[in-house]
């Protein structure tokens, strides 16, 4: 089967790019699909994650101001799709334009929209203005309208399911890229978190929590892996809190599996998540996880006192208390870590991609 994935770019180190590489590689190498990936403007940037040499990459090189950009996008996309002649198209574009691809394509085949983010991401702005709220409402209405044009609309969690009033909707979670035999010893005095430094990830909250933790456990360190914002506001916050010697900031790394293995606890403080890929990655290495009960992913993955802790949103005191509990109680850490491994097993790539394979075949038969 010939499948096209349409996405903005694959040169980043984000969750969408990671998931796309996992699925596309498995479909190509294990299930013998012919996979094409269309990007908008890579600008000759190197890809961060590995993509099979058998996958065909097409870059539209879309440029111009707002109007010309959209017109060029529509024109070049139609030309590219007509040349490929796919059996099915899957759109992985969380922007508004992604919702209207079926409306602008002349070539007709079954089309899937993969939603990798919650609607909450548009509301995750600090102190939104009245104009921002009107804009968010308008965007949501346009997304709801465009979503109905797809043959299937796939979301990541049960919470995501409740955000959309669609008949063509289905839940397929993200797959794991690894499930190693060797897991963390849970002996190292280290907590890890992975993700960009945007407001959504809540590192401002995490640093406040960490201040409370190291007041009692100054021998522990926090490792943060992710692309830093240009203002480096979290560096400055760590300085203000006088905790710089207890926090390490690192750029994204390809060998993140090794970094999970070196840690003993995974801490997430996101204000919202599309899924929470990092949680199942950490669990695959046997790490107990702690997160705020934010929309959308953590509550689908973390079960209180079983594989970690879910904390009421914004409860910094409660979060610090539970994190300290995991630090002080090695038996609890080991028990939750063991259960976390079992949870992660449900997301192994062959199990998740089998669901995609079935959906593709049902839509094209």
Automatic annotation (TrEMBL):
Gene3D superfamilies (alphabetical): Glycogen Phosphorylase B
Pfam families: Glycos_transf_1 (PF00534)
Protein origin, superkingdom: Bacteria
Keyword vocabulary terms for this entry: Transferase
Domain Glycosyl transferase family: 185-342
GO MF annotations, alphabetized: glycosyltransferase activity
InterPro entries, sorted: Glyco_trans_1
Name of the protein in its database record: Glycosyltransferase involved in cell wall biosynthesis
Record organism: Aquimarina intermedia
């Amino acid at each position: 089967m010939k499948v096209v994935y349409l996405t903005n770019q694959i040169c980043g180190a984000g969750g969408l790019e990671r998931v796309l590489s996992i699925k596309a590689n498995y479909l190509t190498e294990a299930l013998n699909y012919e996979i094409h990936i269309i990007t908008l403007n890579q600008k000759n940037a190197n890809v961060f994650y590995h993509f099979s040499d058998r996958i065909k990459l097409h870059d539209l090189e879309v440029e111009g101001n707002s109007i010309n950009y959209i017109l060029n996008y529509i024109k070049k996309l139609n030309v590219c799709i007509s040349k490929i002649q796919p059996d099915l198209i899957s759109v992985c574009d969380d922007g508004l334009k992604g919702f209207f691809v079926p409306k602008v394509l002349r070539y007709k085949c079954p089309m899937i929209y993969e939603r990798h983010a919650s609607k909450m991401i548009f509301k995750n702005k600090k102190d939104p203005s009245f104009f921002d709220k009107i804009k968010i409402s308008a965007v949501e209405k346009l997304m709801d309208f465009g979503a109905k044009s797809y043959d299937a609309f796939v979301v990541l969690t049960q919470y995501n399911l409740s955000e959309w009033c669609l008949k063509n909707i289905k839940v397929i979670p993200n797959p794991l890229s690894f499930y190693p035999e060797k897991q963390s010893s849970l002996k190292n005095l280290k907590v890890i978190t992975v993700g960009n430094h945007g407001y959504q990830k809540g590192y401002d909250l995490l640093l406040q929590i960490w201040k409370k933790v190291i007041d009692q456990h100054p021998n522990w360190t926090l490792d943060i892996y992710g692309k830093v914002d240009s203002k480096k506001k979290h560096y400055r916050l760590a300085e203000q809190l006088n905790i710089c010697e207890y926090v390490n900031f690192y750029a994204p790394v390809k060998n993140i599996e090794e970094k999970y293995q070196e840690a003993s606890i995974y801490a997430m403080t996101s204000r919202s998540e599309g899924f929470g890929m990092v949680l199942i990655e950490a669990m695959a290495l046997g790490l107990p996880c702690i997160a705020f009960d934010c929309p959308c992913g953590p509550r689908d993955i973390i079960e209180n006192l079983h594989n970690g802790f879910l904390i009421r949103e914004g409860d910094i005191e409660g979060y610090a208390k539970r994190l300290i509990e995991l630090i002080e109680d090695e038996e609890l850490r080991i028990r939750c870590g063991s259960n976390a491994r079992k949870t992660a097993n449900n997301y192994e790539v062959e199990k998740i991609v089998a669901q995609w394979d079935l959906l593709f075949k049902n839509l094209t038969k």
